[in-house]
Amino acid sequence: MKLYYSPGACSLAPHILLQESKAKYTLEKVDLKTKITEKGEDFKKINPKGYVPTLQLDNGEVLTEGPAIMQYIADQAPTSKLAPAAGTMARYRLQEWLNFITSEIHKGFSPLFNPAVPDAYKTMVKENLGKRFDYLSDKLTKNNFLMGNDFTAPDAYLYTTLTWSGYVGIDLNRWPSLQAFVKRVGDRPAVKAAHTAEKSK
Fold first, then answer.
1. Which of 28, 70, 100, 187 is the most buried (most CB within 10 A)?
2. Residue 55 — φ and ψ, nearest 5°?
3. Which of 97, 96, 123, 99 is nearest to 112 (CA)?
4. pTM > 0.90
5. In what order do the strands lie in the sheet containing 26-31?
6. Which residues are CB-contacts of 133 (< 8 A; sequence separation ≥ 6)?
7. pLDDT > 90? residue 201
8. pLDDT at position 147, please?
9. What is the pLDDT of residues 143-179, one digit of tens each?
10. Which domains does the chain have, with CATH numbers?
């Protein structure tokens, strides 16, 4: 497998899962402004949507969208327990978390990275994210991870998005359980390895 990624982007989440699952994979960095890969390829020919993560499978197929990619990676290594078995209620709970993070957290951050967005609107966006953080904080006060006490795919995704907080002026000190979660996940060997790999390229 080959993961197309951009440092600091949401592609870190599936990268973490590739490390956690001990999968065989390669990385290729993408310049999201020029849409050119580090090998000089036109990224839009690989993924016409033009954004990461994008996973090229060994058979040549290309899979896009983080939640789909993360579930695919997890399913290739069932013993890693990164996702419950398909068809179980626990799997639907995992999909529930992935959808929540995608729509309410990940997309919630998007306006904060856009310099053209007025400050007044950014303040509203931060307030909205704060409400979502309140919900997450309550869940993570009771459990180490989103699905209980075992690390699963949504944890990699939530960790990735929460690490953006400092870049956009959101202080996680208000949510000690979220701070503890970020440290807990960040200390995992697979997470450290993913960060190191992305910084070295």
1. 70
2. -115, 120
3. 123
4. yes
5. 36-37, 26-31, 2-5, 54-56, 62-64
6. 172, 174, 175, 178
7. no
8. 97
9. 999 999 999 999 999 999 999 999 999 999 999 999 9
10. 2-80+189-200 (3.40.30.10), 89-186 (1.20.1050.10)
